[in-house]
């Protein structure tokens, strides 16, 4: 694994930063004309998602990208899992967090089709609303994701368990249809923004997955291309 992926980096999206409204402030400071969800819209999205919970009790959350290596929320258990019907893809353009308007970056989303191995976090029922409000401040900023319940599969997961997953909104204006791995790697190798570089985001995700015994061949191929582009 690339040495860069093994470094323990401080992350701008800390729990304290999210609680203080850092993401909204970052967008406001950027002067990039991005429509953001209001507090009321975010609250309504969370309420609608919780109302659709398949069964009462603790809440599972599915992580497939930065939530794996920088959760910034409280949970009582984490398990490697598989979901079906969705796959991990660099399909969300970002002109602020991991890029600039002149050189937008790419971050991950869950796009339709295939399957995805990731990490499920179990949040205690008593803390679920508080922790999910924090997560909504992080993920549901511009409406680029659609939260939905997905079925979990894994030896450490009870049968018929579901988790919240942030799937890509294909109607979002910064949704990017998949391109070649070489083109994706070229963007990731050169883009950086207020939250750091796309390169670090990729390597941290690969390293985080491997910590749970998960190897994503697609991401690994892109990582090799990124290293080659920067050598």
From TrEMBL:
Q: Into which EC class is this enzyme placed?
A: lyase
Q: Which GO terms describe its biological process?
A: glutathione catabolic process
Presence of the UniProt keyword Zinc-finger in the record: no
Taxonomically, which superkingdom?
Answer: Bacteria
In the Enzyme Commission scheme, what number(s) does this protein have?
Answer: 4.3.2.7
What keywords appear on the UniProt entry? Lyase
Task: Show the InterPro entries listed in the entry.
Answer: ChaC, GGCT-like, GGCT-like_sf
Q: What is this protein called?
A: glutathione-specific gamma-glutamylcyclotransferase
Q: Which organism is it from?
A: Microvirga aerilata
Which Pfam families has this protein been placed in? ChaC
GO CC: one term? cytoplasm
GO molecular function terms attached to this record: glutathione specific gamma-glutamylcyclotransferase activity
């Amino acid at each position: 694994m690339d040495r860069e992926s093994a470094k323990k980096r401080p992350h701008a999206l800390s729990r304290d930063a999210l609680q203080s409204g850092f993401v909204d402030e970052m967008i406001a400071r950027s002067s990039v004309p991005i429509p953001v969800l209001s507090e009321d819209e975010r609250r309504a999205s969370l309420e609608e998602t919780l109302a659709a919970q398949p069964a009462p009790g603790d809440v599972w959350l599915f992580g497939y990208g930065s939530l794996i290596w920088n959760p910034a929320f409280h949970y009582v258990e984490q398990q490697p899992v598989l979901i079906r019907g969705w796959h991990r893809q660099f399909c969300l353009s970002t002109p602020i967090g991991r890029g600039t308007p002149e050189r937008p970056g790419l971050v991950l989303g869950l796009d339709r089709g295939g399957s995805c191995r990731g990490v499920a976090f179990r949040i205690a029922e008593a803390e679920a609303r508080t922790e999910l409000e924090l997560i909504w401040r992080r993920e549901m900023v511009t409406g680029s994701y659609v939260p939905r319940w997905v079925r979990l599969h894994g030896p450490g997961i009870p049968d018929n368990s579901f988790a919240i997953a942030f799937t890509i909104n294909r109607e979002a204006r910064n949704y990017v249809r998949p391109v070649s791995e070489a083109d994706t790697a070229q963007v990731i190798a050169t883009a950086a923004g207020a939250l750091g570089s796309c390169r670090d985001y990729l390597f941290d995700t690969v390293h985080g997955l491997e910590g749970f015994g998960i190897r994503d061949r697609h991401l690994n191929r892109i990582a090799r291309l990124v290293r080659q582009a920067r050598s």
